[in-house]
Amino acid sequence: MSTSRVENPAGGVSGKAIRHESAPLHVTGRAHYADDIPLPAGALHVAIGQSEVAHGRLRELDLSLVRAAPGVVAVLTAADVPGENNYGAVLKDDPIFAFDAVQHVGQPLFAVVATSMDAARRALRLARVDIDVLPAILDIREALARESFVLPTVRLERGDAEVALGAAPFCLEGSFSLGGQEHFYLEANVAVALPQDDGSLVIHSSTQNPTEVQHVVAHALGVPAHEVGIQCRRLGGAFGGKESQPALFAAIAAIAARRLGRAVKLRLDRDADMTMTGKRHDFEADYRVGFDAGGRILALDVMLASRCGYSADLSGPVNDRAMFHLDNCYFLDNVRIVSHRCKTHTVSNTAFRGFGGPQGMMVIEVVIDAIARRLGCDPLAVRQRNFYGIGTRDVTHYQMRVEDNIIADLVSRLALSSDYQARRAAIARSNAASSLVKRGIALTPVKFGISFTATHFNQAGALVHVYADGSVLLNHGGLEMGQGLHTKVAQVVADEFGLPLSAIRISATDTAKVPNTAATAASSGTDLNGKAAQAAARIIRGRMQDFLAGKYAADRAAVRFTQGEVHIGETHLPFAEAARQSWFARVSLSSTGFYATPKIHYDPKSMMGRPFYYFAYGAAVSEVAIDTLTGEHRLLRVDILHDAGRSLNPAIDIGQVEGGFLQGVGWLTCEELWWDREGRLKTHAPSTYKIPAVSDWPEVAHVKLLERADNREDTIFRAKAVGEPPLMLAMSVFHALREAVSAAAGDGEAGARAAARLMAPATPEAVLRALGALDGAGLS
Amino acid sequence: MAQAEQAIKFIVDGTPVEAHGLAPSTTLLNYLREQGCTGVKEGCAEGDCGACTVVIGELDGARIDWRAVNACLCLVPTVDGKEVLTAQGLAAADGQLHPVQQALVDNHASQCGFCTPGFVMSLLAHYLELGDAAPSREGVLDALSGNLCRCTGYRPIIDAGLAMTRYPAPSRWSPADAADPARIERLRALQRSQDCRLPGYTAPRSLDAFAAEYEAHPDALILAGGTDIGLWVTKEMRTLPPLLYIGNVVELKAIAYTEEGLRIGAAVRLEAAFAAIVAACPQLAELARRFASRPIRNAGTLCGNIANGSPIGDAMPALIALGARVRLRKGGATREIPLEDLYLGYRQKDLAPGEFVESVFVPALAPDTHLAVYKIAKRRDQDISAVCGGFAVTVCGGQVSAARIAFGGMAATPARARHAEQALLGQAWSMAAVDAAARALSRDYAPLSDMRASQTYRVAVAANLLRRFWFERNGTSAERLDALQPVSLLVGDA
C-alpha cells in the first residue's frame, strides 16, 4: 500500500532487525533494575509477615518479640495504614494487611521495617499469630460444588445450543483440566520508596502498571495522586505478573517510608514472591459438542470454571477473554458458554500472557481433537473444516465480524513448508515399528484479539523533547520488560525525524512525565505507545516545518526530514542546525502525544460488540515423542509461521515468538503448581517449579514471520501486536502429545479414550496416567 | 578452634579485595552486591536459576582452573586465595565487549536482561575451557544447564554459544590466560602459608589436620561446595555452627585409579568425579549430564552428596548398584563400609561424632554385568528426581548370578531393592523374571506422594524402569528419547 510506504520511509530504521536498546548494558551487567539502584544513607528494608493458614479469623497478632528483635525499626499492621487498606485492581477486596478474615496462605498480616533485609526476615519469624482455622476451599471442583464465586457467573449464547445438540448427527461430551502457571519473571517484585522534602514520594517500582501503583499508593496514604511519583526504567520480566501485584508492595514500602521519613526498600525473595503473588488461572471445563460427519461443529455447550483465588483482582476480564477466545479460529454457530469465577482460599490469580485467552483456546482445541478422534480423521482436517470463512461464517459468538481472516492461507502454507502430511505418514510408520517410544505430530492455529477488552484502557501518552543540539529524548507510558518496546518506539520516532536511532534516547517510565497511562499489557505496548510517540514527534516536526518553510520561503510540503538532515527545497540543514534555528526563533521543541484506539466498543453486560481492533494470527507444527514406560517426552521439532503484520523489528518479533512459544510449552508440559491439603503451595521456587530450561528448546526449529502481511487496520506502520499470541503456538505440543498417547494406546477408540485423558500440564506422570498405566497401580 | 582475626583475600574482576569481619555464612552474592557489584543478580538464592553465576579461578599447579558457580550458594571464606569474575569485568578497558558478550548482543539473546549476566558467565567458563576447540551444541547446552531464561526460549543464546569462538580473541579472558604468568603470580601471592582460620571458619590443608580438627570439634559443620549448606543460610536462615572447610585438604582432592576401581576423595567436585566414573562406566554418562547443573557440579562434591544422605540424591542409586564403599575416618582411625549401610534412616547416618566420609571407592564393573541408571524428573536439565534407579545385573550362562538394584526417591533413604534382587537371583534373565522382580518392588518401597510425583507414579515407574533395563540389555526396541531425531530426517530412509 502506498500509504504504508509514506508512513514507513524507505531507508528508515523501522522494519529493521535492530538489537535491543539495552543489550550492551545487559551483557555487561550494567543495566539497573529496581534492586540495583543505590540507596541513600539510612535506608531501611521491609519484609512481610504472611499467613500460614489458608482460611480463618485472625484473633491475635502478638508482635512484641518482632518489635524487640535486633535491627527492627518499626512494625506495620492494618492499623498503620493511613488511608485505604486495600490494593484491589477492580473491586476493593484485596486488603494490604489482613485484619479479620485470613483468606490464603501467604496473605500479608504485617510488615517489619529493619536496618537490613536479613534483620527484617529474621524478625518475621518471632511473630505469634493466633488464627481460628476455618474450612478452606482449595480447588475448582470444590468451589463449584459449594457455589463459591468471587464474581457472578457470566453466560454468552448465540443460537440455540440445546436444540442444535439434539439435531446433530454426532455428539460427544468430555471434561478437561488445565493447570495454572507461575510467571517466574527472573526479577522478583521490588519497591523502593524515597521520601522527598515536602513529604511526597518517588517510588521505584518493578511494575507494568505505574499509574495503578500511583493511585493505590495515594489511596493507601490518603494523599492526592500528585504526591506520588512512580518510576521504572526496566523490568526483569513481567508477563502480566507485575500488572496488579506490585501495588501491594509499593504501598507497604510507601507507608513505611512516609511514616519513618526514610528511604525504604521492599524486595521479595523468590519464595515470598511465588507464595504471595497471583498466577495464571487454572481451569476446569465440561463440554458437549454436536457435529456432522465431516467434523464441522454444529452445536457447543461449554462450562468454564477458573480458580480466581480469594479475590476478584483481574479475574473478571481474564475469564471474559477466555469466553471470547473459546472460538480460537473457528466459527461457532449454536453456542452456549457459562463461565464461573470460582473463589478459593488460595492466592488471587491474575494476568498472565494471554489473559485467559489461552485457556479458552485450549478448550476448543481439545474439543476439536476429540471430534477428530471420534471420526478417525486427521485433527488438522477438522480444524480447517471449522475455520472462519471470508465473507461468510465470519461473525464471532460475540457479534464481531472477523474482517482480517488469514488463517486458512497461513495454515496451508505452514502445512506445506513443514511437510506435515508426509511426516504424519512417516510417524505412523515409525510408531508401527516401535513398541516403547511413540511419536505424535500436531498443527494448531492461533487467532488472538488485540485490545484491552476494557475499552478505556486503550489510550496512551508520550512526551518528546528535541533539544537545541538536535538530540531527542523520548518518554512514553509503556514499560520495557524485555519485549523490546523501547527499541520499537525509538525506531518510530527516529523515522519521524529522519534521524539515526542513536539520536533518540528513552528515559525511565515516570508518572511525572506521562500521566494516566494504561498498563503495558494486552500486547498493546507498541500499538498504543508507538502511535502516541509518533503523534508527539509529528507535532514537533510540524512546528519545525512551519518555521523553516517561513524562514526559507519554501512550501511547507517541501520541508522533509531524512538521513539526519532537514531538506527545505534546495537547502539542506543538519537536523541539529534545524533544531538550533527553531529554538532560537522560539519554536517549542517539546510535545506530548496522545493516542486512543479507534473502532472498538463493547457492552460488558451483553458481551457483544467489537472488543478487538484486529486479530493476530499464527500456527505451529510440533513433533514429539513419548516413552511409554515412563511418560517422559521430548519436543523434537517445531515449525512456526506467525503474523506480526508489517514487523517493526523482525529480530525482536522473532524473539517474542520463540520465547512465547517455549513459555507456553512450559505451561502445558513441565510447569506444575502443587498445593498440599493445607493450601500451602509446595512449588514455590525453581527447585520444585520447573520452567523450561535450555535443553527444552528443540534442536530442529523453523520459526518465521508471515511476509507481506500489512495489518489492514491503521496501526503503527501497519505492524501487529506480538506479545501474547505466540504463547498459544504451544498448543501444538500438547496436541502432538495427545497424538502420541493415542498411538501408544493403539489408536481407534482406545486411542481416543487415552488421548482424552491427557490433561495439562502433560508431565511424565500425566502421560502415564492417560495411558492407563497408573490404573490400579500403587500400593495395595 | 583457634581464633585469629584474618582477612579473606581474593580478587574480584582483577582488583584485589580484603574482606574483614565477615560472618562466615555470608554468601558471595550478597557480598558482591553490597560492594556495588550489582551485575550479579539474585533470582532464586538456591542455585537453580543461574542469575548469580560467576566464574571462579583457582590455582591448579601452573595453570588457573576456571569454573562457573552460583554465587548465591558460595560462602565468601571459600574463595579465599581465588579470583572471582563477573559480567562487569569482562569488557576490555576501551569498552570492547568480550566475544561471549558480543555474540549474545549480535544474536539478540537478551530480552529483559536480568538473567543475561549469568548466561554471560556460564558461556565465559565454556569459552575458556574450550581452548581452540569449536563449541558443540551438546557442550553449550551442558554449560547452560544451570541458567534459566524466561523470555527468549533460549534459541538465540544457544546460537551465541555456538558463535562465540568465531570472534577475534579478546585482549583479556581468553583461554591462553590460564597459563599467563602475571595472573598466576598474582594468585600465588594470595596463597597462605598456614591454614585459614577465621572466627567460625577453619580450612585445614592436610588430612591429618582436618581429621584432628573434626575429632576435637565434632559440633563443627563440614563444608564442601555449599550446595546444600548454602540453602540452610539463604532459605532456612539457620545460624550455622563453626564451619570446617574440606575444600583445601590436598589429599582429598585426588582420584586414585587401581585395577579394582576408583577411589574418589571427599574434596573432589562432582564434575571431576563423574568424569572419572563415566570414563570407567560410560553407562553413567546421561546421569552425569543430568545430575544437577554444571555450576552445581562445579561446586558440590561427590562425597558431599553421599554424606548429605538425601533420599533424592542422584549419585547413590548408581553407586550402590556398582557396589561402592565409603571410607570413614575419625581422627587417625578409618573403616570402610558398603555405601548402602551408611544410611540408617531419614537423614540419619552411621557416622560417629567426629567421623566423616573420607573417600568413596567405586569398584570396576564385574564381568558379564549389565549396568544402567535412569533418572525420572519433569525436566531434563537440573531437576530433582522423582525416581532415580540404578541397576547392575550379572548374567552367567543365561542365569542371574548377581543383582544390585537401588532407588532414590522411593524411601526415606537411598536404598537397595532387596526383594526385587532376590526375585532375580538364580533365575533365567527373562521378562518373566523381570516382571516378578518388578512386582517384588512393592515390598521394597512405600514411597510418598509429593510435588514431584504421586506414590502411584513412583511405584509404576520404578517397575517400568526395571523393564526398560531388561529391554535395553536384550536389544529389543531400546529406543531412548535422547537419541531421537525428528521423523522428517528419516523420511529418506523410509
UniProtKB/TrEMBL annotation, chain A:
Region Disordered: start and end of each range?
A: 1-21
The UniProt entry, under InterPro entries, shows:
Ald_Oxase/Xan_DH_a/b, Ald_Oxase/Xan_DH_a/b_sf, Ald_Oxase/xanthine_DH-like, AldOxase/xan_DH_MoCoBD1, AldOxase/xan_DH_MoCoBD2, AldOxase/xan_DH_Mopterin-bd_sf, Xanthine_DH_Mopterin-bd_su
Q: Which SMART domains match?
A: Ald_Xan_dh_C (SM01008)
Q: What is its EC number?
A: 1.17.1.4
Cofactors named for this entry = Mo-molybdopterin cytosine dinucleotide; FAD; [2Fe-2S] cluster; Mo-molybdopterin
Q: Which GO terms describe its molecular function?
A: 2 iron, 2 sulfur cluster binding; iron ion binding; molybdenum ion binding; xanthine dehydrogenase activity
Report the residue ranges that make up the Aldehyde oxidase/xanthine dehydrogenase a/b hammerhead domain in this protein: 28-135
Pfam families, A to Z: Ald_Xan_dh_C, MoCoBD_1, MoCoBD_2
Q: What is the main EC category here?
A: oxidoreductase
SUPFAM superfamilies, from UniProt?
CO dehydrogenase molybdoprotein N-domain-like, Molybdenum cofactor-binding domain
Query: Iron as a keyword?
Result: yes
Similarity field: Belongs to the xanthine dehydrogenase family.
PANTHER family, per database record: XANTHINE DEHYDROGENASE
- Its protein name is Xanthine dehydrogenase molybdopterin binding subunit
